[in-house]
Specification:
The chain is mainly α. The protein is 63% helix and 0% strand. The radius of gyration is 42 Å and the shape is rod-shaped.
């Protein structure tokens, strides 16, 4: 079997084509990985920016306690008549309900 120059060139060009295709596939894979990494980083940056914006908005719109207003409201409510609590209601309780020393279900 004689090896001709044309045969060697044909084999060489086939090897070069396969190597070129392999290099192209490798390059495309590397490019895809880089693009995915960039996309993931952009997504993380967007989430961090959204979180910062929400924190800034919450910081700007904080509700602040108003103890003086609470005292004024309480004093106005007490001027309205018999004062009560959330446990007794607005009518309060009578004095006979405050007497101790009687039998109750609590074992007194």
């Amino acid at each position: 079997m004689a090896v001709t120059t044309a045969g060697v060139l044909g084999i060489a060009s086939a090897i070069a084509a396969v190597a070129g295709a392999g290099a192209t596939a490798y390059s495309a894979d590397q490019s895809r990985k880089a693009q995915n990494q960039a996309s993931d980083q952009a997504r993380r940056n967007a989430l961090m920016q959204e979180k910062r914006a929400e924190e800034d908005m919450n910081r700007a719109n904080q509700r602040k306690a108003n103890p003086l207003g609470a005292l004024q409201d309480a004093s106005l409510m007490s001027k309205g008549g018999v004062s009560g609590t959330m446990l007794t209601g607005q009518s309060g309780i009578t004095n006979d309900q405050l007497q101790l020393g009687r039998n109750t279900l609590l074992g007194g």
